[in-house]
Amino acid sequence: MTKIKSKTNNKNNQSAFKEELLDEILANYNHQNPEDLVGSNGLLKQLKQAVIQRALESEMTHHLGYEKSSKNSREINLDGNYRNGHSSKKIITDDGNFNINTPRDRNGSFEPQIIKKGQNRFTGFDDNIISMYSRGMTLGEIQSHLKEIYGTDVSKDFISNVTDNVIDELQNWQNRPLDEVYPIVYMDAIRVKSNDEGRIINKAVHMAIGVNMSGHKEVLGFWIEKNEGAKFWLKIVTELKNRGLKDIFIACVDGLKGFPDAINSIYPDTKVRLCIVHMVRHSLKYVPYKDRKAVAADLKLVYSAINENEAQKQLNNFKDKWDKKYAVIADSWQRNWAEITPFLEYPDYIRRAIYTTNAIESINYSIRKIIKNRSILKNDIAISKILYLALQNISKNGLCRSINGKRH
Question: Is residue 318 part of a domain?
């Protein structure tokens, strides 16, 4: 066995423990077998368990006002309170399961702090589970990971219950007051497979992202419904107003029928602009591969025109050139002209901001990556949990303002 001493010349990095104590702890450590130190039953785990147990005893001493070994200890405490044995309890930690003995007092007034009454998980363990869940790991994967890394056995129901702790936080976030003005709001929906009364269906998760007066993107909320429709969007827009949003300058949406009317019924002065990318994408689905590049180039002349008159001229040229082969394209653009032309009223730097609903689509892409391991989500609560936690995780990468309101 080798005796190891802790040495350092940097005062800022010196251990809070005396070297003599560390020497004593490591006296029997075999440096050729690191498992003795950091393994599932290694020294560090044993030390953590011992420190927790000693801390509990110290808390009881502080509570009663006298040491355990004091003579006539019952008379020292003015309330006549005294130690009354221990209760055994298993707790779950990052280092595996511990068995600890929580001291009791005769009056039942002792409230331990390091491991509170009813607590069976050490601080930080729940956060680790939630972090793994927010990154797309399934319940089974989290269960296996905890077993492999920490030697901790937990059930899938246990993991699900831990993630349920975010539901109240989610509801508070979903109902939080909004700014009075968002110059730009993007609205779009993503499809998620879910179990609905025994049937597997694609549910629509409606999402709204606002650009605030400081230029930061912020997820205003998400709403789950079986299908995307203008009537449900009207309900969402009404909720946004009830949460304090008084004015939207520009609303960027896809080509859903009735969507602009739903927005203007609540915000009559809002300019509703169709996503140009959606329009182009919809147009090209009628075009075979050999013509796609040419058709896309001619459509670009329409939406990149300097003003509405020039855009109308380019659309007429497109119609003359392509109508015999793809008459539906020009007709589609002309039908939606009132929602396309607001885009042309703005200078180039604003056009770039409202050219597409990609502000939402980039987040939707990140969400899809996170939920791809979950082919079917059990219900709306499961959908809400994973989406909320996914948005928290995405916000750390600066794609939107964080859920807790901090700006990135």
Answer: yes
Structure tokens at 406: 């901090």
Please tell me whether residues 61 and 187 are part of one structural domain. no
Split into its structural domains, the chain has a count of 2
Gap between the Cα atoms of 369 and 136, Å rounded: 8
186 shares a domain with 111: no
pLDDT digits (tens, 9 = 90+) for 304-356: 888 889 999 999 999 999 999 999 999 999 988 887 877 777 777 777 777 66
43 phi, psi to nearest 5 deg: -60, -40
Question: Are 75 and 197 found together in one domain?
Answer: no
218 part of a folded domain: yes
Of 106, 122, 138, which residue is a domain's last? 122
206 secondary structure, DSSP code: E
Question: What are the residues facing 205 on neighbouring strands?
Answer: 190, 224
Q: Which residues are bridge partners to 208 per DSSP?
A: 187, 221
Q: Which residues form the domain of 376?
A: 181-388
Whether residue 193 sits in one domain with residue 89: no
For 333-346, the three-class secondary structure string (H helix, E strand, C coil) is HHHCHHHHHHHHHC
Map tokens 């040229």 to a residue.
317
Task: Report which secondary-structure segment, H or E, holds 252.
Answer: strand 247-253
Nearest of 118, 249, 131, 231 to residue 179 by alpha carbon: 249
Give me 152's structure tokens: 């901790």
Query: What does pTM read for this prediction?
Result: 0.62
Give the whole-angstrom CA distance, residue 157 versus residue 346: 53
Say if 363 falls within a structural domain: yes
- In whole angstroms, give the CA distance from residue 313 to residue 111: 79
> 185 and 323 share a domain?
yes
| Phi, psi (rounded to 5 degrees) for 373 | -75, -15
Q: Is the dihedral of CA 241, 275, 374, 231 positive or negative?
A: positive
